[in-house]
Design the sequence.
C-alpha cells in the first residue's frame, strides 16, 4: 500500500515538472512541525480555478518515543477568487495512514495501533507574502474508518483487531508556509 501511494505521489511530481506554464508550490505545515511530525506538500495548479495537492507526514520514534505513524492526503481544491493559490478555496480530500501509540497519549490508560482512511471536506485562505511566498490557514472535517487494536498499558497485544469503526474527525488543520516554483 505504501509503495502504491508513494508511486502515485512520484507520478504526480514527474508530470508536474514536465508541464509548461503551470504553477507548482512546495509547502510545509508548521503545526505538524510543532508536533514533531515532519511533513511536505506539493500543490500543482491544473486550471484557472483548480489545483491538486499531495501532502504527507511522518512521525518516527526518534521524535516522540511513544507515538509514531505516517499519513498521506491527496486533495482537490477549487479557488473561489478565480486565481489559484490566492485567497479562499474549498476542497475535497482523501486521507490514510497508520499509527502506533505505546504510551496512552490518544486514550488515557490504553495503548493502541492501527490504520485509518477517510474522506473530508476542506477549506482555507491563502495570504500573499511576496512574489514566491504564501501562508495558508486550513481546516476541514472528515469521516474516518479505523482498523485498530486497543489494549491496557502493560498487557500483551490482542491477536485480533476491533471491528471497523467510523468517526467524524477534524482534518487538515494547519498553518502552512509555501514556496511557489514557476
Sequence:
Amino acid at each position: 500500500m505504501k509503495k502504491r501511494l508513494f508511486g502515485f505521489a512520484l507520478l504526480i511530481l514527474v508530470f508536474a515538472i514536465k508541464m509548461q506554464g503551470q504553477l507548482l508550490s512546495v509547502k510545509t505545515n508548521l503545526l505538524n512541525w510543532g508536533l514533531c511530525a515532519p511533513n511536505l506538500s506539493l500543490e500543482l495548479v491544473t486550471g484557472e480555478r483548480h489545483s491538486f495537492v499531495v501532502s504527507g507526514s511522518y512521525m518516527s520514534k526518534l521524535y516522540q518515543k511513544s507515538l509514531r505513524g505516517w499519513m498521506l492526503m491527496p486533495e482537490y481544491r477549487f479557488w473561489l477568487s478565480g486565481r489559484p493559490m490566492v485567497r479562499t478555496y474549498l476542497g475535497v480530500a482523501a486521507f490514510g495512514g497508520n499509527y502506533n501509540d505505546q504510551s496512552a497519549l490518544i486514550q488515557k490508560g490504553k495503548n493502541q495501533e492501527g490504520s485509518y482512511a477517510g474522506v473530508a471536506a476542506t477549506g482555507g485562505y491563502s495570504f500573499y507574502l511576496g512574489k514566491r511566498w504564501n501562508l495558508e490557514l486550513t481546516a476541514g472535517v472528515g469521516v474516518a474508518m479505523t482498523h485498530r487494536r486497543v489494549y491496557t498499558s502493560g498487557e500483551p497485544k490482542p491477536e485480533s483487531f476491533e471491528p471497523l469503526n467510523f468517526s467524524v474527525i477534524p482534518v487538515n488543520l494547519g498553518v502552512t508556509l509555501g514556496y511557489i516554483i514557476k
